[in-house]
Amino acid sequence: MVKFILVCLLVGNALFFAFTHGYLGDSTLENHDPARLLKQKNPEALRLVTAEIALAAQTPASEMAASTSSIPELAAGVAVVIPPACLMWGVFLPEDVSKVETRLATLSLGERQSRQNVQDGGSYIVYIPSQGSKEGADKKAANLVQLGIREYLIIQDQSKLRWGISLGVFRTEEAARQHLISLNARGVHTAKVGPRTVATTKFIYQLRKLSSAENQALSVMKSDFPHQTVTICK
Predict the structure, then answer these.
(1) Can you give the residue ranges of every domain in the chain?
(2) Using one digit for the tens of pLDDT, what is the confidence trace for 79-99?
(3) Is 165 left (phi over 0), alpha (psi -120 to 50) or beta?
(4) Three-state SS string across 141-197, please?
(5) pLDDT for 175-217, tens place per residue?
(6) How far apart (Å, rounded) are the C-alpha atoms in residues 73 and 56?
(7) DSSP secondary structure letter of residue 81
(8) Nearest Cα to 70, choosing from 224, 233, 212?
(9) Are 127 and 166 in contact (CB under 8 A)?
(10) In angstroms, rounded to a whole number, what is the distance separating the alpha carbons of residues 189 and 74?
(11) SS3 231
(12) DSSP bridge pairs for 192
């Protein structure tokens, strides 16, 4: 009797060992066995993937082959990060332009690359619209002097306000409108308030439809300009 019990215990222990180590096939513990994680083949081949690639992996095999054939990284089973359709790089000073464009030339982006002047529109101007000529502006300025207003400037640049008169520039629209009210009280009734947009000497670069390789090359270029940032186009 004692021998029979000992044999049963030995057989039971052997079955339990085989069960917990997966020798008996599928089990509820199989998917949670840390030992099996250690036995994975080529764990270094695991890659984090983007949402687009994850969705692509759920498509039928025939569609998957067609959709990845044009993307070497996907066809080779390597996960890639898809860059945004449009990126903005900089704000660069004029002395940086030559160096930046020399580096960008290595990408051969062609029409996918453009340089844009930075506009400063962070202020408001109180102004009298263009008088059409210098003579007209001088006449209007003389009228202002008669009203006791001597703080003005005849606008002579090539903007649409040329031969108009600036009566003050303010950081906020509220301050500009308060000044306009005071001018109205002194007899100036043709002045207006508008945003003051001035073209600066700074530049940004717009880069469109970069491939993964081009985006990686841009990341390397960025190290030469540590104070410049790359953002997604608005």
Answers:
(1) 32-82, 83-234
(2) 556 778 999 998 898 889 899
(3) beta
(4) HHHHHHCCCCCCEECCCCCCCCCCEEEEEECCHHHHHHHHHHHHHCCCCCCEEEEEE
(5) 999 999 999 999 999 999 998 877 678 899 999 999 999 999 9
(6) 13
(7) P
(8) 212
(9) yes
(10) 68
(11) strand
(12) 127
Q: In what order do the strands lie in the sheet with 165-170?
A: 153-154, 165-170, 113-128, 192-208, 86-92, 230-232
Q: CA 86, CA 75: separation in Å to the nearest integer?
A: 25
Q: Which two tokens stand for residue 126?
A: 């109180």
pLDDT at 234 over 90: no
Cβ neighbours, 10 Å, residue 2: 6
Burial classification of residue 90, based on how many CB atoms lie within 10 Å of its CB (0-12 exposed, 13-18 middle, 19 or more buried): buried
Q: Which of 76, 120, 126, 117 lies closest to 97, judged by CA?
A: 117
* Cα separation, 137 vs 156, whole angstroms: 10
139 strand-pairing partners: none
Residue whose entry in the numeric block shows the structure tokens 């993937």: 49
Q: Map tokens 């060992």 to a residue.
A: 17
Token duo for residue 158: 């090539």
Q: Are 109 and 204 in contact (CB under 8 A)?
A: no
Q: Give the position of tokens 């089990």.
A: 27
Task: In whole angstroms, give the CA distance from residue 48 to residue 80.
Answer: 9
Angstrom distance (rounded) from CA 16 to CA 23: 10
Residue with tokens 């044009």: 70
